[in-house]
Specification:
Elements (H helix, E strand, L loop, with lengths): L6 H10 L4 H18 L6
């Protein structure tokens, strides 16, 4: 199963000049919640 790329949203923010620590922290937190709720971690 292909892993989703969670960096896309951060890259978009960086490209539009709207990147700041607060937004990145919120995005990472959301993605971590999504990952922990919906992903089974498999060692590579």
């Amino acid at each position: 199963m292909k892993r989703p790329n969670f960096n896309i949203e951060i890259e978009i923010l960086a490209d539009t000049g709207n990147l700041n620590c607060e937004k990145v922290a919120i995005i990472c937190e959301k993605h971590f919640e999504i990952l922990t709720k919906h992903t089974t971690f498999v060692p590579e």
